[in-house]
Design a protein that fits this description.
3 helices; 26 strands
Length: 361
């Protein structure tokens, strides 16, 4: 369809609906639009009469720029054929972007066929992606924001803020996602990954941080939280530092690598997978239990350090604490240095505990 034909079709459709007594509400339901600009290269920009949505659901190749504002405004840009074959409408509070039923095989994934949407709305609480999406936004104040991805997603936000007690930023990924925020100040950050996820939380302040990984995940940023709970059964690399006023709890059944520092009231590590740690830990109580394989190069300062290893472990621990208790019943190599007021060692199986560098006054 050429440009003149497309323009005539749009005008004819609008006139036909008007003649039949169609209301603005009916027009919004089917995504009726006004042509704002038509370029000579076949690209079209349209303003859509769409309102009253808090969610976005897309199964196509889209680039979305979201601005939080009091009013609703949606514009779409792209190839004339792509727009004509796409249904953009609002249903039950969800802005849906999908191929029209008679265009189920729309070529929307190759170069030049993406749609660009500029969206202004009071709030976006849920984003669902089943295609390829790039989503960018600036500063957002929200009670909740959920990102659900089963396709390919790039999500970038300058700031996400909310009430520290009730608000939530949730990420659930089953596809390939890159999620980056420069600043997060919110009640709960909840991440659940079973795909491939790069998560950069920037500077994050939360009441609770929950991370569960069953796929492949990279974490980075600076996290300040009241409590942190990490459960890994996939492959995870952490370049995030944590400052926790309460407990930091880490459980590993997969492969994990951490190279950043952790400060908390208490630090608990349970490993039955493969864990590599090269960091500084500060806590009143450090409790490490190993059933799998680990390689630790750790500096610890605090009150009490407990190490119980019945797996395969290589520990290089520099401590500055009151008490240290080591239970080694597996294939364990422990080298201790630094100072500890009280020490207790119990070894069985194949274990070697080197305390030659401990309490060298």
């Amino acid at each position: 369809m050429d440009i003149k034909t497309l323009t005539l079709a749009v005008v004819t459709a609008a006139f036909s609906l008007s003649a039949c007594g169609g209301t603005a509400k009916e027009a919004a339901a089917v995504g009726i639009t006004d042509v704002a600009d038509m370029g000579t290269n076949g690209n079209v920009t349209k303003t859509l009469n769409l309102k009253h949505f808090k969610e976005i659901n897309s199964s196509l190749n889209v680039v979305i720029s979201y601005t939080q504002g009091n009013d609703y405004k949606v514009t779409v840009s792209g190839g004339a054929g792509t727009i004509a074959a796409t249904d953009i409408s609002v249903s039950n509070g969800t802005l849906k972007i999908a191929p029209k039923k008679n265009n189920a095989n729309i070529d929307n994934g190759k170069s030049g066929t993406e749609l660009r949407l500029d969206i202004t709305a009071p709030a976006i609480e849920n984003i669902e992606n089943y295609g390829r999406m790039s989503f960018t936004t600036g500063t957002v104040s929200t009670g909740k924001m959920s990102v659900n991805n089963s396709g390919v997603l790039s999500f970038n936000a300058i700031s996400i803020t909310g009430n520290q007690r009730q608000s939530c930023f949730k990420i659930e990924n089953h596809g390939r996602a890159d999620v980056k925020t420069e600043r997060t100040d919110i009640g709960t950050t909840d991440v659940n990954n079973s795909g491939v996820l790069d998560f950069d939380c920037g500077k994050a302040a939360t009441s609770t941080t929950e991370i569960e990984n069953h796929g492949r995940m990279n974490i980075s940023g600076i996290v300040k939280s009241s409590s942190v709970n990490i459960n890994n059964s996939g492959a995870c690399t952490s370049d995030a530092s944590y400052n926790v006023s309460g407990s930091y709890d880490f459980t590993n059944h997969g492969r994990y690598k951490n190279d950043r520092d952790i400060t908390a009231k208490s630090i608990t590590i349970n490993n039955s997978g493969t864990d590599t740690e090269g960091c500084t830990l500060k806590a009143d109580v450090l409790d490490i239990t190993i059933y799998g394989r680990c390689k630790y190069d750790i500096n610890f300062s605090g009150d009490t350090a407990k190490l119980n290893c019945s797996g395969v472990g290589d520990f290089n621990l520099n401590v500055d604490c009151k008490d240290i208790n080591v239970e080694a019943s597996g294939n364990v190599k422990v080298k201790l240095s630094g100072t500890a007021d009280n020490t207790e060692f119990n070894g069985s199986g194949i274990s070697k505990i080197d305390t030659s560098g401990l309490n060298k006054f």
